[in-house]
Amino acid sequence: MDKEKMLSYILDSYPYPIVFVDCDHVIRYLNKRAEYHYYQERGYRNLIGKSIFACHQNPKSVEMIKSTVENLKNHANEVFLKVSPRNERIYIVPVRNENGELVGYFERFELNLQK
């Protein structure tokens, strides 16, 4: 099994959406749960290759994402964004190359067990 296929299987086994976005804010990957969430539940289509701002059009959201990514470029770690209406905590996680440079980021969701 090649490495790319193995990583895809691993990410697809995660029970929450994972959306990887490059530094130009272009969506490059959705795991199976993210495809279901955005395509089936929210009605989007063909998000791969489109701007993350096609989903997040609210000016406040756009500014929050851009500001967070600027912090990630300056070596910030994972950033908590908010708790969703589904009671999921949403984070933006940096993805860095071997030199520590930001190559993109992903939205990570997890059940919020604290109330």
UniProtKB/TrEMBL annotation:
Superkingdom classification of source: Bacteria
InterPro entries for the chain: PAS-like_dom_sf
Cited Pfam families: PAS_10 (PF13596)
This protein's name: PAS domain-containing protein
